[in-house]
Design brief:
This protein is of the alpha/beta class. It has one domain: Rossmann fold (3-Layer(aba) Sandwich). Helices cover 48% and strands 18% of the residues. Strands 2-1-3-4 form a 4-stranded parallel β-sheet, sandwiched between helices. Strand 3, helix 4 and strand 4 form a beta-alpha-beta unit. Helix 2 packs across helix 6. The longest helix has 21 residues. The radius of gyration is 15 Å and the shape is globular. The protein starts with 7 loop residues before the first helix and ends with a helix.
Amino acid sequence: MSTLGSPVDERRGEVDATGLRVVIIAARFNAEITDSLLRGALEALAEHGAHDDDLTAIRVPGAWELPQTAARAVETGRFDAVITLGCVIRGETPHFDYVCQETSLGLGAVARAADIPVVFGVLTTDDLAQAQGRAGEGKSNKGYEAAMAALEMISVGRFLRDGP
């Protein structure tokens, strides 16, 4: 799996999660993969100073349920960022296309309407091996990468609000 273009290495240690309240919404479907993505996200947040008390992990049935849950999390006003994690693996029917399209469109709509970062950490792969390759250890873990994106976007939002 290529990590070409990933900003993870250059951002490690440059962002601070201390005191940030982050919710991670992870699908249970394809749990082998989503559990690993969740571990990666929690690892990234902890490495950058997040405290367990400031992190909330919510499980939903599948990727389809991510947009609705993300919208409700944003509405609470309790969080500085929302990270969504899921895994949809192509099968023999068009179901993959419907779930992927509506999940991405739904999360995009939530992100555009939100005043906080809503990060898309949903894998859409052709097979299990591709998903496993994206849910491994270290920088190849897309959950870790999604958490790093959330931290960076919090910083960007603060810069835009408060200036340098």
